[in-house]
């Protein structure tokens, strides 16, 4: 499909531009990138939602307009995943990494940063294996490896929800703004991911029983 090829080319160019932005920004390390870093983090979340949506729509076997959206997202899910990783990496370096390079590790690290760093680290094997060679070489383990999207999404919920001091749960601080804007939507998407997997497996099991009858 020509339109899908255009989307793939668009995402590939976007990935290269994102890498270039990250590399070039290193040479301006003395500048404050905090606000831009926050934007990159939010952008990374939006892209992650799109990747999750591609799988959810496919497993629920949607039709009509949603099917067209699903096909575009599914055909470009690898490019979206790599783009999301570099957006998140830029977010980290502009908000924390450059300060660490300049001044060293801080004595204390906030809980939300720990959750965010864990999510980013878990994303690395997914990015490295987002290619046809890895699919063939890893076999069934490739699918198991990509189940990491679930803990990553859960860590994203915690990373966003724990930014703020509006209320506490079990002694942990939470912020209302980020909880409502990012944590709750991420939690809903995570629930839909799990529900779509259960639905898909039941449909597959039902079809196999019907074929045996």
Instruction: Write down the oligomeric state.
Output: single chain
Would you tell me the overall average pLDDT? 91
The class by helix and strand makeup works out as: mainly alpha
Count of discrete structural domains: 1
The backbone outline, from C-alpha atoms, is globular
Strand content: under 5%
Structure description:
With 213 residues, this protein is mainly alpha-helical. It has one domain (2-212). Helices cover 80% and strands 3% of the residues. The chain contains 9 helices and 2 strands, in the order H-H-H-H-H-H-H-H-E-E-H. A two-stranded antiparallel ribbon has the order 1-2. Strand 1 and strand 2 (172-174) form a beta hairpin. It is globular. The mean pLDDT is 91.
Describe, in short, the structure shown:
By secondary structure, the chain is mostly helical. The chain has helices spanning about 1-25, 35-60, 65-75, 75-105, 110-130, 130-140, 140-145, 150-160, 175-210, and strands spanning about 165-170, 170-175.
What is the strand and helix layout of this fold?
Blueprint: H1 2-26, H2 34-59, H3 65-75, H4 77-103, H5 111-128, H6 132-138, H7 140-145, H8 149-161, E1 167-169, E2 172-174, H9 176-212
Antiparallel strand pairs: 1-2
Helix pairs in contact: 1-4, 2-3, 2-4, 2-9, 4-5, 5-8, 8-9
